[in-house]
Amino acid sequence: MPTTSIKEAIVTFGILVMQLFNGLSLFTILLLMALGLAIVFGLMGVINMAHGEIMAMGAYTTYLTASFFERHLPGLMDVYLFVAILLAFCVTFAFGYLLERGFIRWFYHRPLDTLLATWGLSLILQQTYRSVFGAQEVSVPLTAWLSGAWEPTESIQLPLNRIFIVALTILVTLGVWYILHKTRWGLRARAVTQNRAMSSAVGIDTNRVDALIFALGSGLAGIAGSVFTMVGSTNPGTGQLYIVDSFIVVVFGGVASLLGTAASSFLIAQMQTTLEYLMSGSMAKVAILLLVITVLYFRPNGLFASKVRT
Amino acid sequence: MNLSAKQGEKFAHAGLALLLLGLLPLALGPYWLNLVGKYLAFSFVAVGIVLAWGYCGILSLGQGVFFGFGGYAMAMFLKLEASAPELPDFMVWSSVEQLPFWWEPYSSFGVTLASIFLVPIPVAFIFAYAIFRKRVSGVYFAIVTIALSMTLVVLNIGQQGETGGANGITDFSTLLGFDIIDDAGKKAIYWVEVALLLTATTLAALLLHSRFGKLLIAVRDREDRVRFSGFDTAMIKAFIFTVSAVLSSVGGAMFALQAGLVTPSLIGAVTSVELVIYAAVGGRLSVVGAVVGALLVGFTKSYLSEHYPETWLFFLGGMFIFVVWVLPNGLADLFRKILRVKT
């Protein structure tokens, strides 16, 4: 009968929209993580394996803020989220700054060693979380105005908290774009990325740029952690789940542009959720990795790299 | 003592042989010797990492893939022997009714042995040559390999009925009818393992001293110059990567025999990166150092996770940082300095 098939089509369409939307929340986390990684890697050639743990640091900061508000300022629970996001950014920004000044900067000439040293750091951070917060998952209460869903049609339900994180991510990404492309500081950062020696020669304090970029990258991971608490529970291993995926995003998109990172995290997140819907989760991961390796084979500098470098 | 580099190296190799063939078997009881056997299984991988990373600059964070392959190949054979003529128990639990076709070859010991040595060759070579030919290297290669090993773990756990899932493959006790659980059996395996390992270290040292060894160092330090001189550097890198893959696979097979089980975590990223630190602690430029590093870190791991489980990760993480920061060439370098070996 025609009416049933139309109904079916509407339901299928609804599933499709919700599927795309599910992909979006993975997209936001991957994008925030990968943005930080990409600007750090693009500028300094440094692989920060502890980036996932910095994200977890943001998540735990959010959790602590939520607990604090619950206990001492229950009347303000509606706005704790904004405080938490800001705090998560500040804490991880400061941590990133100290990390770069005290640690990373000694290894700039040895990228592979940096990878190992930051892996060591990530183990230490993980164990610290486990000792402080316990091995079990912690989660934050969902703010009242973010629970519920927006239902544009009968078969489509879009959870409000996910709409919120998508909006937040777009805002943050635009902010990063603005900082990098419209401010004097961003100009310096881009100059150092393109030619470190020449930038130094014209009087840019490259050490300062390095430290601030690293701090900014860490701060973005902190926001990613904050966002993560709204869609999942945090445990000491949370960071590890996302670190490799974020690297794949960076490698896939190429480190050249913000747009490349954004496009690549969108593609990978959508593929991941769609393939998971069609086949088992493990097969989805395998399929994506094979695809990324194939793409790398034909475009070694990433899908969106504009120029060939050696 | 003032030793030349060559003399120093000979001393190191002789010392290792003495340690593994004489001191440890005499001094340690069966329990400890079995532990040594387990760590020695990892040291195969560490030797491979010295060749690929220390001398050729290829950091693979996916050595666990090949280690796991060797381990699973051996374990599949042992499991089939243990459960013959029935299906392995975990398949029955997952109601798999027929032996998966890729298990079939592993009912023969000869094929199993051959596959442990031979299968990694085409797999590693084709993968590495394709990637190196495109001049993907350094950290990109590290990321691709770590992603590969993580993905294979997910795949392995997902296919519970055919791979044993998260529990891995366990419960086997005989190899071709010989008991491998009792002390005599364990000791026999230990001798085989040490013989293989000493062969591997000797061959590795010979390889490094050959003309090809110099070429490896040249590729590590100035790859483009070697390329401009007319060498196919991708071929050189793929070759040494393949060697390290075969070593890992053999190590994995020995691990399955020594430990009596294989689990997906052996393939995983954590194991793969830990293996790199084994080599780094011993000394990324020393074949003997890699073996000693694997033994030392292995023992520390067992001791700490038994007595102070909370501190193990702190210690391991600290070691990564310490080795990279303070002792980039590992313990071998420290020894060289103490013994005043000229480099």
Give an overview in words.
The complex is a heterodimer of chains A (310) and B (343). The mean pLDDT of chain A is 84. Chain A has helices spanning 2-44, 51-72, 80-102, 111-133, 160-182, 184-194, 196-201, 206-231, 238-253, 258-278, 281-298; strands at 149-153, 156-159. In chain A, 75% of the residues lie in helices and 3% in strands. By secondary structure, chain B is an all-alpha fold. Chain B is built from 16 helices and four strands. A two-stranded antiparallel ribbon of chain B has the order 1-4. The relative contact order of chain B is 0.20. The model of chain B has no long low-confidence stretch (mean pLDDT 85).
Q: Tally the beta strands of chain B.
A: 4
Sheet with most strands of chain A: 2 strands, antiparallel
Could you give the order of the helices and strands of chain B? HHHHHHHHEEEHHHHEHHHH
Distance N to C terminus of chain B: 14 Å
Radius of gyration of chain B: 20 Å
Give the count of helical stretches of chain B: 16
The overall strand count of chain A is 2
From the structure above, extract its key features:
heterodimer, A: 310 residues, mainly alpha, globular, B: 343 residues, 4 strands, 2% strand
Q: How are the elements arranged and paired?
A:
The complex is a heterodimer of chains A (310) and B (343).
Chain A: H1 2-44, H2 51-72, H3 80-102, H4 111-133, E1 149-153, E2 156-159, H5 160-182, H6 184-194, H7 196-201, H8 206-231, H9 238-253, H10 258-278, H11 281-298
Helix pairs in contact in A: 1-5, 1-8, 1-9, 1-10, 2-3, 2-4, 2-8, 2-9, 3-8, 5-6, 5-8, 6-8, 9-10, 10-11
Chain B: H1 5-27, H2 30-54, H3 63-83, H4 89-93, H5 109-118, H6 120-133, H7 139-158, H8 160-163, E1 169-170, E2 174-175, E3 178-179, H9 183-209, H10 211-221, H11 223-228, H12 233-259, E4 261-262, H13 269-282, H14 287-307, H15 311-325, H16 330-338
Antiparallel strand pairs in B: 1-4, 2-3
Helix pairs in contact in B: 1-9, 1-14, 2-9, 2-12, 2-13, 2-14, 3-5, 3-12, 6-12, 9-12, 13-14
